[in-house]
Amino acid sequence: MRAVGRSDSGIERRATDGNAPRKAGNSGKTDDQREERIVPVTFRKSFRIFPGVRLNINRKSVSITLAKGDGARRTYSSTGRRTTSMDLPGPFGYRKTTTRRSRH
């Protein structure tokens, strides 16, 4: 089934059934010729174990965060990364990250 119509600009448009290849925008490629895009897979979950202690799990590592009431935090990651951070008044914050040297 084909239907022909004209848009306001006078360009002819054709609506085709689902089996016919369609053009994808201005690229001139049909649906079958388009490259597939890789969608990144992300995962992150954080569990509060005790007040001030969090267990963070993501796709590649596990970390534990220790926090004080004044906004200071220290994070230890399974990848060797150590992060110290602090919330400061207003739009300010502090973060310092160090990475353990690899052993060769």
Helix content: under 10%
| Overall residue-averaged pLDDT value | 77
Radius of gyration from CA coordinates: 27 Å
Sequence stretches where pLDDT stays below 50 over 5 or more residues: none
Q: Which strand order do you get reading across the main beta sheet?
A: 3-4-5-6-7-8
Distance between the termini: 67 Å
Shape: elongated
Major sheet size, sense and barrel closure: 6 strands, antiparallel
Q: What is the string of SSEs from the N terminus onward? A: EEEEEEEE
Number of helices: 0
The total tally of domains equals 2
Number of strands: 8
Sheet-strand content, in percent, reads over 45%
**Helix/strand/pairing class, anyone?**
mainly beta
Organism: Streptomyces wuyuanensis
Biased composition (Low complexity): 74-85
Domain DUF4236: 42-95
Protein name: DUF4236 domain-containing protein
Overview of this protein structure:
This protein is an all-beta fold and 104 residues long. The chain is built from no helices and eight strands. The chain has strands at residues 3-6, 12-15, 44-50, 53-58, 62-67, 72-77, 81-87, 93-99. Residues 29-38 have a biased composition (Basic and acidic residues). This is DUF4236 domain-containing protein.
Furnish the topology, listing elements before pairings.
Blueprint: E1 3-6, E2 12-15, E3 44-50, E4 53-58, E5 62-67, E6 72-77, E7 81-87, E8 93-99
Antiparallel strand pairs: 1-2, 3-4, 4-5, 5-6, 6-7, 7-8
